[in-house]
Amino acid sequence: MPTRLPDFPLRPAGPAATGFLSRGLGGYRDAARWVLALPYGRGQGRDELAIFSELRGTCSTKHALLARLAAEHGVAVELVLAIYLMSEQNTPGVGEVLRAHHIDAIPEAHCVLRWQGRLIDLTRALPPSASPPPALEFLHTRTIVPADIAAHKPELHRRYLADWIATKLPDRTLDEVWSIREACIAALAMH
């Protein structure tokens, strides 16, 4: 997957570059491979630079860090917010939570990178011996910037979710469905 991204030498152009250079990583694809190898998990905050101290990240923080690194070097790798219907089939580990609440799928906000018109996801990759996860079918995409992951991304996600609930689960509240979604995310961290 990192081979689908541009490659360029890193220079001390900002905090993201400094973080990667301090780990001996000299190129953008090297940085992408390092991010790809980190475990999935929420850190203490939604700041992508925290990945360097916490050594884990979510789709938001991992991709935001790489988008920030590209921006520090003047390379147009975009951060994209994408909404998809999360189910056990496309996101193994959430099925038990969804079944417990009698829901087959729930809209989830997912971040990916876009380079030269192609979407690149560095958080859904599996070891080479494993079957690749099914491709996600995105219902909505929007370009965002790394600073958006803390407040703007959840706001956009909640707005989309509220509209979906109104037509698909009218007997549920936004807070209730958001809690189910949070339980799904917690299950992924343990999966």
Q: How many strand segments?
A: 4
> Oligomerization state of this entry?
single chain
Question: Could you tell me how far the N terminus lies from the C terminus, measured between alpha carbons in angstroms?
Answer: 22 Å
Shape: elongated
What is the total number of structural domains?
2
Q: So how many helices?
A: 7
State Rg.
Answer: 17 Å
- Percentage of residues in helical conformation: 25-40%
Strand order of the largest sheet: 3-2-1-4
Q: Provide the low-confidence segments as ranges.
A: 125-129
Proportion of β residues? Answer: 15-25%
Which H/E pattern describes the elements? HHHHEHEEEHH
Largest sheet report? 4 strands, antiparallel
Alpha-beta classification = alpha+beta
The average pLDDT score comes to 90
Walk me through what this model shows.
This protein has 191 residues and is an alpha+beta fold. It has 2 domains: 2-72, no CATH class; 79-190, no CATH class. The chain contains 7 helices and 4 strands, in the order H-H-H-H-E-H-E-E-E-H-H. A 4-stranded antiparallel beta sheet has the order 3-2-1-4. Strand 2 (106-115) and strand 3 form a beta hairpin. Helix 2 runs antiparallel to helix 4.
